[in-house]
Amino acid sequence: MSNVYGGFGNGGPGAVRGPQEGQGDIHETVGAYALGILDDAEATAFEAHLATCDWCAQQLDDLAGMEPMLAALADLPGNQGTPAIGESLSAKPSPRLVERLVDEVSERRAQKRRRGFYLVAAAAALIIGGPLTVMAVNGGDSGTQDPMATGPAKAAFQLMTDKHSATDPSTKVNAVVAMESKDWGTHAVLQLKNVKGPLKCSLVAVGKNGERETVTTWAVPNWGYGIANAKTDQAKNPLYVHGGAAFTPNEIDHFEVVTFDGKKLVKVDA
């Protein structure tokens, strides 16, 4: 059998190549088997090989989906009487058809490679960005700018219009809470200033019915957030954190920023 039909044109674009490939190598038969141009004896022999060869099984899977192209071929002038899909072809396909099939396989593989690249890029972004965010929440002592000050919470805060602010007369901590209604409840973003650490804090939504729901928690490093006379930018920058509550906005009476040991830093009416 010609290598053009068995191996899809050895050396051509998208060529199907098997391990330790050579003239008459049974791995090359996968292309001809996919086209349906093997006789009964050849097809039976290849199917016996296919049952034990993962490589050929993968190649056959890659070549799947060509039936629409073969069906279209049957409608071309000069090709009347082409067997129905699933039946053996009575003649070998023309070199032009083989080239079209090779192009189809090449495009399918290129699409798989592109999807794989995007997934790898997304995973890399998570791997790189994840530790930075965790470090900020846990109060890491890196000298780089805190990503919580420039991340998605800040972007959401700037876009939201329903904002409520307050400064506690005792602690001098300033807080601004932005809210937006969601199908599941309330999305809230906190901007916090003039707070020094080390502290572990929570933003709590207090309902008009007296129920309390924790919106989000975070850690304040030693140098703090939003300190006006601080010597470093990371200490001057306010903290932005966000989270959600099951309350709807009109069910919330106020918000509280409290430490883990129960001290209230500031209260913000909703």
UniProtKB/TrEMBL annotation:
| Chain ranges passing through the membrane | 116-137
Q: Which Gene3D superfamilies match?
A: Anti-sigma factor, zinc-finger domain
Q: Does the keyword Cell division apply?
A: no
| InterPro entries linked to this entry | Anti_sigma_zinc_sf, Znf_put
Q: Where is this region: Disordered?
A: 1-23
Q: Which Pfam families match?
A: zf-HC2 (PF13490)
Question: What is the protein's species of origin?
Answer: Streptomyces yaanensis
- Keywords assigned by UniProt? Membrane, Transcription, Transcription regulation, Transmembrane, Transmembrane helix
Query: Does the keyword field hold DNA damage?
Result: no
Which residues lie in Gly residues bias regions? 1-15
- Domain spans labelled Putative zinc-finger: 25-57
Protein name per UniProt: Anti-sigma factor family protein
